[in-house]
Amino acid sequence: MTQAIQKFTDTRQQILDTAKKIMLGKGFAAVGLNEILTQANVPKGSFYHYFKSKEQFGDALLEDYLDGYLAHIDARLSPENGSVKSRLQAFFQNWLDTQTADTTHDKCLVVKLSAEVTDLSETMRITLKRGTDKIINRIAQCVQEGIDNGELPAHLDAKNVTNEIYYMWIGATLLTKVNRSRDALESAMSSLKHRLNLNA
User: What does the alpha-carbon distance between residue 56 and residue 104 come to, in Å, rounded to a whole number?
Assistant: First the structure.
């Protein structure tokens, strides 16, 4: 990689990383480009060198976040981390802990931006849909592994039960923000353990 390409890549990533931190707190529409570029220490006039529009920038931000989150899932659900039950329980416990913490940097950008950007941009909506489909598929693969090896109940349909679980956890995460309480995600954890028979 040439020095010029490396600088382009590094600066672009710096803008995305800075924007993610700000938008986790404020949302998409409320954040101006000047605020992002100032905090990223990037000249204000250079934004359109990296992104053609704020919409393209928002789409790149979502893609970057989702790529990182998929890598997180792959690491958490890797077979080297023990049984299927222990992997699933650890993954969702991490979800619960990060989404109820006082800090914003580990919060879910999908939950933060979904309702807002799906009305603003069809491109960003499609990116979110593709990303969440991939997340569900990753979890479903782990659930299917558990069904196949006898750890999880044989009657389960991996895709259907994973859809149910993911929708429940996304909703519970949103209610956690509304209520400022762990109750919704604690309830989701209890339902997860019952649905997958994780306590057995």
Answer: 24
